[in-house]
Amino acid sequence: MQCPKNQRISLVDGTLSDKLPVKHCPDCQGNWISHTSYEEWILSQPPRLAEPKLIASSSVTDSNFVPSPNDNRAALCPECQHYLTRARVFYNRCFYIERCMHCGGIWCDKGEWEVLEKLGLHTNIEQLFSHEWQSRVREMEYAEKERQATEAKLGAKVASMVFELAEILENHPNGDFGVAYLMRRFNK
C-alpha cells in the first residue's frame, strides 16, 4: 500500500490513540485509517456529537500545529485508487481531512489526528464531510475574518467594547431597539 501523497513511499503498520490500527507513512508522517478499522474502533468509543460553534470557541489551542505542506496536494486512495475528498476543519489554521468516498478510508496528514482528538472530532469524522457542517465552518471563518477586520479598523480596545455590546443586544429581548438607536445616530 502506497502513501496517498507520495506514491513512491510504502505505508507501514502503526497505531493511533486507543489502539486504532493504521497504515503510517514513514516519510510524511501521515496516517491511513481503513473504513473497517475505524468502524470497529468507533464501537469501543463513547458516543459524542461535535458542534462547529463549540470547536471555534474551544479553549483547545495548539500554536505548534502547522498544517502539512502536503495538505493541499491531491491524493489517491491507497486501497482503491479513487481520488480522496477533502473536508475543511476550522482550527486556528484551517486544514483538511481526506476521505475516500468509494471505500470510506480516511487520510490524516501529520498532526491532524491529534488536533481532531483534542477537539473531540476523531469519533465524528463522517460529520465533517456533511454539507451542513461545511456550511457552518464557512460561516465561522467569515465571522472570524469580520472580527479581525473590526479589530484592525477600530483597535483592540474599542472593538472589544463593540463585540461586548453586540452580544448584550443580541441576548436582550429588545436588543433590536438598541441597534436601531445606534443606526439612527450614525445616519446623521
From TrEMBL:
<protein>
    <submittedName>
        <fullName>Zf-TFIIB domain-containing protein</fullName>
    </submittedName>
</protein>
<dbReference type="InterPro" id="IPR027392">
    <property type="entry name" value="TF_Znf"/>
</dbReference>
<feature type="domain" description="Transcription factor zinc-finger">
    <location>
        <begin position="77"/>
        <end position="114"/>
    </location>
</feature>
<dbReference type="Pfam" id="PF13453">
    <property type="entry name" value="Zn_ribbon_TFIIB"/>
</dbReference>
